[in-house]
Amino acid sequence: MIALCPASNEIWVYETSNSPDMSKWNRICIMKEHFNVITALKWHPVTDLLISASADRGVIVWKQDGKDFHPQMGMVKEGRANLDADWNVRGDKFIVAASSGCIYVGTYFEQNNFWVAHSVSKSSNKPIHKASVVCARFDPGSSRVAVSSSLDGTVQISSCYNKDVDFEGTGPFKDVNTYGENLISISCNGWVNSVTFSPSSEQILYVTHDCEVNFANVSKVVTDPKAKPESQKIMHNGNPHLQTIFVDDNKAICTGFDKVPYFYKKEGNDWKMNLKNIRWH
C-alpha cells in the first residue's frame, strides 16, 4: 500500500500490487479528517501506523483495519501550522516540526486511545528555534534525542528521553536521560531544508538553501560538551536539495529542485558526489 496527499486535506490510500505503474493502482480509501492542506505523511514499517500532520495545526495517527483506517487523536498544543512529522524506529514515539519554532514529541495513552505530544524545551512556551522548523528526526539508535532544521539557519540536537518507552538503545546517545536539553547547535548561512541521522546515529546530514551539503560527526559531543562536531561541506553545483536520507553510514541520497536524486559516498575520510552507479529512469 501507499498513502499520498494531492495537495489538499485528503489522504488517498492505494493498493499497488507491487507494481510501479500507477495506472494499475487501486484506490481503496480516502481520509478527510483534516481541515487544511496536509504537510506530512509517514507510515511506520513495523506498527503499520500512519501519521499525518497538517496546516490546520492537527496531528492524526491512523490505525488500519482491513481497507479502513481509523483516526486516533494527537494532542499537540501548536498555534500555527505543523510542517513535518516522523516516527522513531520502534514506532512508539512521533515527532512533529512546527511553524512556531517548536518541535513536539508524542506518545500513546492506551487507556484514552489518543496520543499526547509535548514541546521539546526546558520551558514549554519557549520554541527552540527562532523560525519555522521544516524537518525533525529521531536518532535511530535510541530515540532519546532529536535533530531539527529550521529557517532560522540552525540545526539543533535536543534531548527527548521518555522513561516510559526509552528502555534500551544503541549509539552515542543511548545514555541520555534528560528532556528538552540542547546538546548541539550548528549555525548555517541559509535556511536548512532537511536533516537526518545516519543509521549508527554518529553522523548527521543537513542541506541548506544556498546549495550546501553538510556531513557532521556528532558522536563525541555527548561525552565532551565542549567538543565541536567534525564536519565536511560540499557545494552542490545545482539547485538546493530538499530531502536527505542515509543508505548506510557511508552512502547518502539527496534530492530537490533539480528533480533528480544525487548520490554521495564516503571514500576514506571524505564525502564525495558519486554518479557512477546511478541509472536514471
What does this 3D model show about the protein?
The protein is 0% helix and 50% strand. With 281 residues, the chain is mainly beta. Strands 4-5-6-7-11-10-9-8 form an eight-stranded mixed sheet, with no helix packed on it. The chain has a four-stranded antiparallel sheet with strand order 12-13-14-15, with no helix packed on it. Strands 16-17-18-19 form a four-stranded antiparallel sheet, with no helix packed on it. Strand 1 and strand 2 (11-15) form a beta hairpin. The two termini are 22 Å apart.
Radius of gyration using CA atoms only: 19 Å
Globally, the shape reads: globular
Helix fraction by DSSP (H/I, runs of at least 4): under 10%
Uncertain residue ranges: none
The strands making up the biggest β-sheet line up spatially as: 4-5-6-7-11-10-9-8
The termini sit apart by: 22 Å
The major beta sheet can be summarized as: 8 strands, mixed
What layout of secondary structure does this protein have?
Blueprint: E1 2-4, E2 11-15, E3 26-31, E4 38-43, E5 50-54, E6 59-65, E7 68-75, E8 82-87, E9 94-98, E10 103-109, E11 114-119, E12 133-138, E13 145-150, E14 154-160, E15 179-187, E16 192-197, E17 203-208, E18 212-217, E19 230-235, E20 241-248, E21 251-256, E22 262-267, E23 270-273
Parallel strand pairs: 7-11
Antiparallel strand pairs: 1-2, 2-3, 4-5, 5-6, 6-7, 8-9, 9-10, 10-11, 12-13, 13-14, 14-15, 16-17, 17-18, 18-19, 20-21, 21-22, 22-23
